[in-house]
Each structure stands twice: as C-alpha cells, then as structure tokens.
Write a structure and sequence with these properties.
Bound molecules: ligand C2E, magnesium ion
Helix content: 40-55%
Largest sheet: 8 strands, mixed, barrel
Shape: globular
Organism: Erythrobacter litoralis (strain HTCC2594)
Protein name: Sensory box/GGDEF family protein
Number of strands: 9
Structural class: alpha/beta
Radius of gyration: 21 Å
Number of helices: 11
Distance between the termini: 53 Å
Order of helices and strands: HEEEHHEHHEHEHEHHEHEH
Oligomer: single chain
C-alpha cells in the first residue's frame, strides 16, 4: 500500500509539473496578445504626504485582465514578460499610459512607474520617455521612475550613462524595495535618486515589541534626509504601523491603510473627494476602520 501511495503521489506530482509548464507556455502565448487586445490596465495606488495627509501622487501598477483567468498579478506575469523580452513593449505601454493619465490630473500630482532592469539597460528608454511626455504634454518632473537595486548588479558604464540621460530629461528617480537587495550604500553617493522606498518587509512587524525594523526605518529615513531624498514607507496596513513610520519621519506613506490600487476612474474621483478621514488626528480620536 505504501508503494502504491508513493507511486500515486509521484504520479500527481509529475502531473502538476507538467501542467505548471503547460500553464506557463499558454500564459506566454496569451501575453503576446495582451497589449493589442487591450487586456492590460494600470491601477493607481495613492502615495500620501505624511505632513498634510494629502495625495501627493500615485504609483502605477500593472494589471492583466486575462479573458479566461480574470486578473493576473504582476508578480506572476512580469517574470514571464522579462524572460520573453515582452517587457520592453509592456513597459513602454505602461510609461505611455501613465503619461496620458497624468495629463488629466492636476499639475501638482505625480505618478510613479516601475521600470524593469531590462528596460533600464535598453538604450531606447530615454527616447521612449521623452516621446511619451511630449505626446501627453506632461512636465518631466511629474513622472517618477521606480528602479530596484538590481540595476546595480551590472555595474557598467551603461548604468551610469542611463542615469545621466534620465537626469538630463528631468524625470524623478526612486529606489524601490530598498533594503531587500544587496543594499550597498555606495551607489547612494552617486546615483541621482530623489526618493527611497522602504520595502514593506521592514514595515510589517515593525510594531512588534523587540523588533529591529523600527531602528532600520529610522536610519534609512535620516540617511535619506541627509542626502536630500524623500522616503516612502511601503505597505502600511495598520494604525500602529502608520504611527510608527510617522514617528520615524518617513515623508510619504503608501499602503492599504489609506488605499489599495484603484482603477483610473476611482483614482480620479479620489483626487476630487480626498482620502477618507479615518487616519487623521490622534490615535484616540480615530474611528475604527
Ligand atoms: P512594487 O513596485 O514594490 O509595488 C508595491 C506592491 O505592494 C504592489 O503589488 C502593491 O499593490 C502592494 N501593496 C501596496 N500597499 C500594500 C499594503 O498595504 N499591503 C500589502 N500586502 N501590499 C501592498 P502589486 O501591484 O501586486 O505589484 C507587485 C510588483 O510587480 C511591484 O512591486 C513591481 O515590482 C511589479 N510591477 C507592477 N507593475 C509593474 C510595471 O508596470 N512594470 C514593472 N516592471 N513591474 C511592475
Ligand atoms: Mg514600485
Ligand atoms: Mg516596492
Ligand atoms: Mg516589489
């Protein structure tokens, strides 16, 4: 019986492997058509200025509305896009769409777009950005590019040249998921970042007694301040986390405590109505969420 059970499990296991590979190559085929079929969307998560509790801008987050499977997470399809090279076309679509949507919002509102390391090493990137901004009639300072530490893995002249070109255009640069990569401080010296985004893994659990995360958040924030950079705390979900990142001086806050990523119509509406007042004021005066 043990043998049968073992064989049975093995059988299932190999079936799962087979279907995982199948599923992936099917998704790969489907992804090729996602842009032309209009299945990609950008959703916009508010980024809140700590001092005023007003929306400073949005982070654009890709969503794929698959005709059979519904919404597919970028965590699942961005790696496929990167492996197949489709990331170049998808990334360009995201930049153009974000610029188009920015044009409909007040000039004080910024929008951040995530840029894959593979886009960052594409010499065409500055041209694509310049053209997207010009076509939409949007000022470069309203567009922020989010880049992860992994762009520094190929530490070559291309990286420096790309930073110089992007700075020349006048777009803002944010260092995304800070603290999760190899986090050398060396590149903060030279790379022209305007903002450091503190990864949500530091925010999560930071309020647990004895956690070292609070000390890490405080150090990143004061380092950023010394260097003249903003900081966004990512993934703030609870009032305790909100109090903590405020106390440690993060200039901006992003997370479900304020808002999840919204579709464009909802994001536009939120600019008109403002955030719900729930997080405002001292802790004791807040209504429960
Ligand atoms: P990211 O750039 O670090 O984006 C933040 C992620 O955290 C988003 O997940 C967002 O929905 C999620 N998030 C925000 N607030 C909270 C919170 O309070 N709690 C929790 N648990 N999560 C929160 P999402 O939208 O699933 O995106 C995942 C990743 O996919 C992004 O991480 C980014 O690396 C990548 N991605 C998304 N859009 C694009 C894109 O247009 N281009 C590229 N290259 N990558 C993208
Ligand atoms: Mg990001
Ligand atoms: Mg991030
Ligand atoms: Mg991330």
């Amino acid at each position: 019986a043990a043998k049968d059970g073992g064989r049975g499990r093995f059988h299932f296991y190999s079936n799962d492997l087979h279907s995982a590979a199948e599923e992936r190559s099917q998704l790969e085929r489907d992804l090729r058509e996602a842009i032309s079929e209009g299945q990609l969307e950008l959703h916009y998560q508010p980024v809140v200025q700590t001092a005023t509790e007003r929306i400073a801008g949005f982070e654009a987050l890709l969503r794929w509305k698959h005709p059979q499977h519904g919404y597919i997470s970028p965590a699942k399809f961005i790696p496929i896009a990167e492996d197949t090279g489709l990331i170049q076309a998808i990334g360009e679509w995201a930049i153009r769409t974000a610029c188009h949507d920015l044009a409909s919002w007040p000039k004080s509102i910024r929008c951040a777009v995530n840029v894959s390391p593979l886009q960052f090493s594409n010499e065409q990137l500055p041209t694509i950005i310049t053209s997207a901004l010009a076509q939409a009639g949007v000022a470069p300072t309203r567009l922020e590019l989010e880049i992860t530490e992994s762009v520094f893995l190929n530490d070559d002249e291309g990286t420096d040249a790309m930073f110089a070109a992007l700075s020349g255009i006048g777009v803002r640069l944010a260092l995304d998921d800070f603290g999760t990569g190899y986090s050398s401080l060396g590149y903060l010296k030279t790379a022209p970042f305007n903002k450091i985004k503190i990864d949500q893994s530091f925010v999560r659990g930071a309020t647990v007694p004895g956690s070292r995360n609070g000390a890490i958040i405080a150090s990143i924030t004061s380092l950023a301040q010394e260097l003249g950079m903003d900081t966004t705390a990512e993934g703030v979900e609870t009032l305790d986390e909100l109090d903590l990142v405020r106390m440690h001086g993060c200039s901006h806050i992003q997370g479900y405590i304020y808002e999840k990523p919204l579709n464009k119509a909802e994001a536009t509406k939120r600019l008109e109505t403002g955030l719900t007042a729930i997080a405002r004021g001292p802790k004791s005066a807040r209504a429960p969420r």
